[in-house]
Design a protein that fits this description.
32 strands, mainly beta, binds 4-hydroxy-3-methoxybenzaldehyde, six-stranded antiparallel beta sheet, 495 residues, globular, binds fe (iii) ion
């Protein structure tokens, strides 16, 4: 080992894990794993391999810069097996060979060691997706990496046989459940802070079927997207980038709360002259939840926060950020007419469906791109926070798992007690014929004071009853980002 990690990275349960390996047949300490569950839960985890060597380590580097590690749970026949393995990105291999950190701050090539100039900086650390029989792990600053769903070996950066020439690829592409097509994009596609967007459609086998290059109105984060049967939607977040700021040692992103929200709308097979950039009143555009069309209008459901949703790791122009937990968000529905004679959207085009105060919503995948009723999301109830024996607040991100019934307006939560925090859950339908939303929620639950993690399985429509299975993990699971469920028909048996 080289040096120690800086103190800011070694606070409690989220200090780097740096571990690769497997645990065969996890211990069920309560209840039983439903025998009908068959699939793979995968989660992307930023997990820095070497301590950063930087005079000015940015918070975004600490929170989102780490090397991508794939955490996987193979669930079948009432048993759960576990594996975790780093993505062998170009960056990972270079640093491993050097036995030290060579890449600097989050999306800042100017802070890198000179020896890695021009090399891929991506860590593939944000989300996994499965398409065309292939599993990918991606971060929006580079290409996606293909991963073997059994061994978690890295197959390589995915270019679709050389068709993908964008430098970047979103971690949140969308699969059309009717056609199996993958709609995807890369922003900053010609290099960091460029306004270029590469839009791609791949057929169900993963072959490139359509490509269009666009220019965004501003240089800002486009973290997620949405599709309807006819349109692709690009929500631009109020988090901007600037090459001069980066060159001067500033952060890649700053929050600009007074800028409009932009929604780019492009026909799914559209060309550059067909894109429309709609402008809406300020708001922090979070992840999309669902979208479809009704009477020729686009309905776009997403989570929108009333302030800096990336606080405290992203600051405003003055270098300020509100304390964690002070920004609230809601599920909102935008109604967008692609053929409208104005580019302006007002609040009359938006309805607030539910106050949420959470992120990373999941719906029943069988109801994507059509009207839906049930949403599942980890949420924070700030009235239920707690302190440790020294009176210090216990850091929790989401202290409840919540179910929103958008038809009745009823919300149900499971609160596992103070000092426990959820990671991104997955929803799994109970079976092919189950009613919408009837199935299981599976989530990692971290207990920071005990530096311990467990895997919990709940009946999705009866969250307050608590887990029907609780599995003890013999390893600490530092906070990861997005989790995804892949049906067992698409993944091999492990053992
Ligand atoms: C996010 C995470 C990222 C990133 C951009 O959760 C946005 C939001 C883990 O990296 O690069
Ligand atoms: Fe995301």
């Amino acid at each position: 080992m080289t040096k120690a990690f800086p103190a800011i990275m070694t606070q409690g349960i989220d200090e780097p894990c740096r571990f690769e390996g497997e645990v065969f047949d996890l211990e069920v300490v309560e209840g039983a794993v439903p025998p009908e569950l068959d699939g793979l839960l995968v989660q992307a985890v930023p997990d820095q391999t070497f301590p950063p060597e930087l005079a000015n380590l940015h918070l975004m580097t600490v929170a989102a810069g780490g090397d991508g590690s794939v955490r996987a749970f193979r669930i079948k026949d009432g048993h759960v097996d576990f594996r975790t393995r780093y993505v062998r990105t170009e960056r990972f291999m270079l640093e491993r060979a050097a036995r030290r950190s060579l890449f600097g701050n989050y999306r800042d090539p100017f802070s890198d060691d000179a020896s890695v100039a021009g090399k891929s900086r991506t860590t593939a650390n944000t989300a996994l997706f499965f398409h065309g029989g292939r599993l990918f792990s991606a971060k929006e600053d580079g290409l996606a990496y293909q991963i073997d769903p059994a061994t978690l070996d890295t197959i390589g950066a995915w270019t679709a046989d050389g068709a993908i020439t964008s430098q970047t690829f979103t971690a949140h592409p969308k699969i059309d459940p009717f056609t199996g097509e993958l709609c995807a994009f890369g922003y900053a596609a010609k290099g960091e802070t460029t306004r270029d967007i590469a839009y791609y459609v791949f057929d169900a086998s993963g072959m490139l079927a359509h490509e269009t290059w666009l220019e965004a109105p501003i240089s800002a984060m486009i973290h997620d997207c949405a599709i309807t049967p006819n349109y692709m939607i690009f929500p631009i977040m109020p988090v901007t980038s600037d090459l001069d700021r980066l060159r001067a040692g500033g952060p890649h992103f700053i929050y600009e709360g007074d800028m409009p929200q932009y929604f780019g709308v492009l026909p799914r097979r559209g060309s550059v002259d067909e894109v429309r950039w709609f402008r809406a009143p300020p708001g922090f555009t979070g992840h999309t939840v669902n979208s479809w069309e009704e009477d020729g209008k686009i309905l776009l459901d997403l989570l929108e926060a009333d302030g800096n949703g990336f606080a405290p790791v992203v600051s405003d122009r003055e270098g300020q950020a509100p304390p964690p937990g002070s920004v609230r968000n809601a599920l909102v529905r935008w109604r967008i007419d692609y053929h409208a004679n104005t580019d302006e959207l007002g609040h009359e085009h938006r309805s607030i469906l539910a106050q949420v105060n959470g992120e990373g919503a999941h719906i029943d995948p069988r109801y994507e791109m059509r009207p839906y009723r049930h949403m599942f999301v980890p949420t924070l109830d700030p009235s239920k926070l707690t302190t440790d024996v020294n009176g210090r607040p216990v850091p929790v991100m989401f202290n409840q798992l919540s179910h929103f019934d958008l038809e009745t307006g009823i919300r149900n939560d499971w609160f596992p007690g103070p000092a426990a925090t959820f990671q991104d859950p997955v929803f799994v339908p109970r079976g092919p014929d189950a009613a919408e939303g009837d199935g299981f929620l599976i989530a990692l639950l971290n207990r920071p004071l005990e530096r311990r993690s467990e895997l919990v399985i709940l009946n999705s429509l009866d969250l307050p009853a608590g887990p029907i299975a609780r599995l003890n993990l013999p390893l600490r699971m530092r906070l990861g980002i997005h989790a995804t469920w892949i049906d067992g028909a698409n993944v091999p048996e492990w053992f």
